[in-house]
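Hey, sorry to bother you again with one of my protein questions. There's a protein on my desk that I can't quite get my head around. No rush at all, and the record is pasted right below.
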Amino acid sequence: MKRKKRKVSLVVISDTHLGSIGAGAEELYRYLKSIDPKTVILNGDIVDVWQFSKRYWDKYHTKVLKQLLEFISNGVQVYYVAGNHDEALRRFVNFELAGFKIVNKVILNLDGKKAWFFHGDVFDVAMKHSRWLTRIGGYSYDLLIGLNALVNKFLYYIGKEKLSFSKTIKNKVKAAVSFIGVFEQTVADIAIQNSYDYVVCGHIHQPCIKDFSSEKGKTTYLNSGDWIENMTALEYHKKHWSLYEYKAHKLQIDPLEEFEHKNAKALFSDLVLDINLHDYSSL
C-alpha cells in the first residue's frame, strides 16, 4: 500500500550541493518522495559544479533527478535559481521547457503578498570581490565535512547522536555570527525598499524565518538552509510558511522503494529512457 503524500503549495530547497562530499541525497530523495507540491523552487547550489566528483554521485543523486523529472511530467512548476556553486547555469537563464525554467530570481504572488526568491550570493562581499578566496573556503569546508562524516560514522556505530562541526563553528565564532546577521539585515532592508512581503534566500546554510521592520515598512526573511548539515526546506501552504527539518525516524517512503538495488549507472539509464518517453515538445 502506497503512503499518502503530503500536499504542499510551494517548496523551496537550496544548497543540496549534489556531487560533492557530504551531500544528503538520500535524505533529500526521501523528502521529495513524501510530498505532493504545486511549485518547487530550487534556490541555488543544487549541483555543486565547484567541488563536483563522480565518486560522490551515488544512486540517490540520480533518484533525486528522477523525482524532479517526475514532478515536471506531472505538471509541477519547477524553477532552478542559479547560485554560485552552479553559476555555470547562469548562461542559460530564461531557458524554459515543460514547466522547468532556469532563472536568477523568482517573483511570485502568494495569496496577495509579493515574494522574492534568489540564492543570495549577490550580497556576499567575499563572492563579489574575492572569488578565489571563496573557492579556497569551499575546499576547506569540504575537508571539514569529510572529517565530520567519518566522525559521524563512528558515532552512529556506537549509538551516539551525530555532530555538525561547521554548524557549531558558525554558531560560536563571532565573525561568522556577525556575517550572518549583516547578510540577513541587508537582504531584509532591500526587500522592504522594494515592497516585498517575503524574501527567500539560501547560500549561508542558516535556516530561519524572521520578521524585520524599519520606518519604511516590514518584511519576512526566510532561508531554506541546506542538505549538507541542516537537512531543511521551506514550505508554504494555506497562507502559512513553515521550516521543514528532516527526521529519518519520522519519514518513511513506500516500502517497495527499499527493494530497489539498482546502482547509479542503471538508474541513469532509466532516467534517460524516462526523458525519451515523455513528449515534452508538445507541452
